[in-house]
Each structure stands twice: as C-alpha cells, then as structure tokens.
Amino acid sequence: MNGSAIPSPKAAPSPKALLRGIQVVERASDAAPDLVRIAAAFTGRLLADLGATVTRVESPDDGLARLRSVAHEDLSAGSVLSTFLNRGKARTDEGGAAAALAAAQLAVVAEPGPAEGLVRPDGGLSVVRLSGARPGAGLDDAPLSELGIQGLVGLTDLFGEPDGQPLAMGGHQTAYATGYAAFCAAMALIAKQRLCGQADCAEVNAVDALAWVNWKGIAAGTLGFPVRREGRAADAPVLRCADGHFAFLYLPRDWDHIRAAVDDPRLESDRFASPGRRARNAGALNEVLGEWASTQTREALYDFCQRCGIPGGPVLHAADLLGDAAYSFRGYLESTPHGADRSVTVPGLPMTIEDAATPPNRARPAVAGPSAPEAGDAPLAGMTVLDLGIFTAGSVTSTLLADLGATVIKVESETYSDPFRIWPGIDGDSPLFTFNNRNKLGVNIDLKTDAGRERFLKLVAKADVVVENFRRGVMDRLGIGYSALKAANPRIVLASISGQGASGPGSTHVSFGSTLEAIGGVAALTGYAGGSCYISGRNLNYPDQIVCLYGAGAAIAALLTARERGAGMHIDVSQREVTSLAVGEQIAAASLATGTAAGMAAGFPGNASPNAALQDIFPVEDGWLCVTVPDAQRQARLAQVLGAATEDVRGVLGNWLAERTAAAASEALRPLGIAANKANTGAEAAADPSIRDSAAFARTPAGAMVKGFPFRLLNTPLHIRGESPKMGEHTDQVLSEFLGAAG
Questions:
Q1: CA 488/CA 471 separation, integer angstroms
Q2: Looking at residues 578-585, what average pLDDT do you find?
Q3: End-to-end CA distance of the chain, in Å?
Q4: Which of 165, 230, 243, 692 has a CA 20 to 30 Å removed from the CA of 408?
Q5: How far apart are CA 117 and CA 125, in angstroms?
Q6: DSSP letters spanning 345-387
Q7: What is the residue-averaged pLDDT of the chain?
Q8: In sequence order, what E strands does 196-350 have?
C-alpha cells in the first residue's frame, strides 16, 4: 500500500474503511457452477463493504443476472440477487482484466485450474480460489447443486420430521456459507501480505466449507451418538401461533416460567417432572405448548420470552425484516439502485465500531509475547489473542485466529468456564469443547476478583486482540470493558460477538444461535410447502457457525487498521445481522413490493428452487436422494430417458427412484447433467470419501478427531499444533512468559 491509501492516523476509523487501499479483482468463469459464482460474488461483497476496491470482471454471459430469487421475478432490470451481491463494486470486461489484476493485491476467482498460476512472482497478488468440491474428492465431473451439497454433508438430515422428507436450509445458504469461509481466507491472505510481506493461495470449496459448518452432525455420527431431525419433538421447536410461527429453545432453568405462563394441568404430569423426562417426552410436551402458542401473537410470545430471559423469537419473513425496529435503529438496511429507475433495500454491514482509542503522538513500540509454537510464517504469527469466548460463536472466532498462527490464550476460571466443557455422562471435557478449542493455551484467571482483573489487564498490555461473546454489559461490570482495555493497551482490538448488536432494541435480548435463524430470516426459507418450518437447534446452531467465519475476518481487518493507526478499537459483530445478510436477496425481492414478493410470507418453499426445472429430495431404496434438474432442456432429456411426458416427470421419476439405490440412481442421472447426491446422515457423511479426506476434520498430535479448517492455505498449510487445553493447564507458563515469574 502507498502512504496515501492508509487512513489518517488521527482519524477515527469507520468500519467501511477498514480495507481502504486494498485492490481486489473478482472473476468467475462461465464454467463455474452457479453456487460457486454466488459464493465468489458474496466474498467480493463482504470485502467491498469493509472498504476494499473490488473490481468485478464481467463476462457477456453474466450468470448471476439470470438467477431469480422468487418465482416469476421480473429480470428486465437484472436479478435482485445480482444487485445485492454486486453493490459497491467497480466493473470491467475481459479486456480490462489484466490491468485490474496488475494493480490488485488479491484476486477472488471461481474458475478451473490451479490458483498458484495466478500469483504474481513479486509476491504482490494473493488468490482465493473457490470451487464446488476439492479436486480428487470423487466429484470432479459430477454436476453440483446447493441442495446436493447440503445432502452430501448431512445438513438435510437435521431439518424436518423424522418420519418425513428431509429439508434443506432455504435460499443460498450453501453458497453464502462458502462465501463466509472465503472471506475469512481472504482476510488471512491480506494479513499475510501486510504482516509477513508474502503472497499465498487459499483454496475454498463448498463441500469442505459445509462439512465444517456441520461439524456437530458429522462428529456425533462418528462418535456414536447421532443427531437426526426431530421435527415436532425437537427441544428447539417451532410452534404455530395466532399470526405465524414462533421458535423456542427453552432450558431447564426456564421451566417454572413456562409452566406458569401456559397454566395447563397436563404440565404437572410425571412425564414432565425433570429435564430428562421432558426431553424423552418432547413430542407430547410440544403439543401442549403448541396449543397455548396458537392463542398468542408473535409479539406477545416474544415479550414473554424476553421478560423471562428465555431464548426465543418469531419466524420472520423477508417482508417482516423490512420494517424491523432494531434494523431501522441500527441503519442496517440500505437502499441501492436496481436497474435504470428502481431501487431495492438490502442488508448492509453486520458490524459496528463501538469505540476507538486515540493514536498516541509518539509511536508506541509493539510489545510481543511468545509466538504460537510452529506457527512459522503463518499469517498471524507473532500476534496474541486473549479468548474470553464461550460456546461456538466466541470460541471458534478465536480458534480460527489460532489456526492462522496467533498465540491464543483461553481465559477461564473455576467459577466460570466455557459451558462446552460439560457434557452429561462424560467425565472430563466434552467433545463440544475439544473439537473447538485445539491450538490454544489455557489459563485460570478469576475476573471477578481484583487480583484476577489486574492480572488479565497485564496480559492485555501485551496482547493484540481480545475476543468475547458475553451478554451485553458483562465486560463493563467485570471492570474489563473497552475503556479499561484501552487504558492498559491503546493498541488493543476488542472483538465482540453479540446476538443482535451492541445497540438498539434487540441489544439486550436473549438469543441462541438457532433462534436467530428465526428472527434473522433463514427459518422462513426452511420448511415444508404448506406445512411447518424448522430451526436447527443445538444440533447445528447455524448462525453460530457462520458468525465465527465473519467474526475472525472482521477481527483481522480491525487488527491491521489498529497497527496502521497505532491505536485499537472495539468492533461489534451482530450474529443476527450476519444471518440476515445470508437472505439478502430475499429482502431485496420483498422490497420491490411485487405481487410475488409480497406473498412470500404466505408459506414455506420446501426443497424447490426458482432456478431449477425440478428440485427435491426423493426416497430411494437406501434412504433419500437430493435431485436438481437445472433447466427445461435437461428436464426434457430426463423425460425422454424415463419415457414420460414432461409434465409427468416428477411422478415418474419418483417411482423410478424408489426402485433404486442412491448410488445407482446418481450414476444414471449425472450423465444427463442432473445433480444427484444422497441425503446422508452424519455418520454416512463422515464415511463419504469426499468428506473423510477433506480439510474439515483433522487429528491432534495425540490422535483425537477435532474440527479442521474451512479452507486451505497452499504455501503455509494449516495444521493442529496442540490439544485443547485443560482448565488452567498453561497458567504458570503463560504468566511466566508474558509477565515474568511473579505474574
């Protein structure tokens, strides 16, 4: 970067300028599958929102412009998907691609061939290459669809009724989750250029990224306690209410509040007398709760949940989000031109800068702690992160920074540890903890004591980033809010992961990841046509998985800016807004107020797609098969093979599939250009060669299976350096190395 591209050292940073001066080229081959084009464009959009100059190389056949977000969308002004994804980008054609690449520091490409070939010899250009599947995974020549990949990695086995058809998460969740992984990879490459002076290549593919997202389902199947779709018997049910649907995730502590509000004698039954009995009789319990909920409005149920501190929220459709009070307060939704004379409303940046330190008049020398063992020239080698994160959202944000070479110190105490350490019936740390916290050091510091707080702030003085996802206000009550952190170290970055943002009507509301699926707009796209919708519950907590990817990337952007300014900042990433960003095209379509868009709230889409002639999950001899017939031409070919009239293809295909195994049916359909993948269980996904040998899972030095990586760095391969820490395992080591023997 030249000096003029760096923000003024005295200026307060804007989140929309964190990447100012970074030149990015986004390029997609005409041969790339639609889901990969969407993922690449989403990656570019995320970078542009943070201030990078993103130049999109457009081909004459713009694949995004022909994709509908709702049935019968008018494409005369282009698709709302394209408008949403390409906001804020510059554009050039193939003739200008070479000049754009020559000026760029980063290329985001969706095209065949090795990414290494695009890296400039002078080390000035890094490359993120996106694909549908890892080369050599056995899917090289197979047509791929978003539905098929969700089936392949076992996600479809988490949604729907256990005795019914599996469901996919609606919209473009496969592509967007891949795009979030590519954004994190892109930020790693930018950091490596800035901090190490080296270029690198990142490989991101949708199968690995989605398998990483579904780590719980795959790991549980491997470890012998499979999680499956539970439907109406889920411990995180979606109930029909007077004016729509409402999602709950009630905990044992909430039982007395629920029993008092419902006021039904059936809840006094011995079947519901303990958490274990309620879990075993969840179907019957949810029937009682459903009868009560049917008499309540979404607003009344939400007020009840927030008043009692119960995670829950209404299932909001895209049209509902347009008038959302929290989004209005935070200015999250923004207008952008659509075609020559129209505009649409789209989600904006899902993060804020809450506060920033004033740069010192004199440069303050960096104070370094020990580098992560074997980090070498990894992007974040030499950086130190203090991890106050719990569950997935906070912990895995820090884990990704550890994987990229930072020394990550997990701070816990005997009075408050990461809840993921505990699993009923398991002695020692649970798999939820060990899968997510490898590559970290663990220290025992009680932040509720003066001595512990003083010791923590001494660590802050030598750290670069603090990551936390406590409820709002907890950090300040502990005396370690941002004002205290920046007093200890003006260069520190505080990265907060909050449920609904640090400000506004929802900032103090109780939320869990899966309930954010409801109020973020994803659940409204995940349900049977004419039936009910679903959230993933504890089996996935989808917003938790994607916010880690965005949160780690945002923390890196803040860290790089803090080093340039000589002063840190407090960033806040909203999980709900990260979730709604993944339904951005639906919000844009609703804002057009066409008859189709206005009617989106009327029902749920099932497994259909407005861009496929036929898409669904069909029963086969050995389970279920995800089938995507992409267009009318391939539907006609299929009709010819089946000996059916075009209008009868669905019924005839269903009968034909019922007599075949998933493997036999896939082998017959793929040569026709039809995507066909088995809807795997978690255990089947773990055994599938395309996932078994992927980067999504790894082994520790001791041989334990843990979560792997959502992308690969080719020049600096990511690897597992150490086991997850026992409580306080490295306290003496860390205090000695950072603070001296006295601590």
A1: 23
A2: 98
A3: 39
A4: 692
A5: 11
A6: EEE--SEEEEEEPPPPSSPPPP---PPPTT-TT-TTTT-EEEE
A7: 92
A8: 201-205, 238-241, 244-248, 312-314, 333-338, 342-347
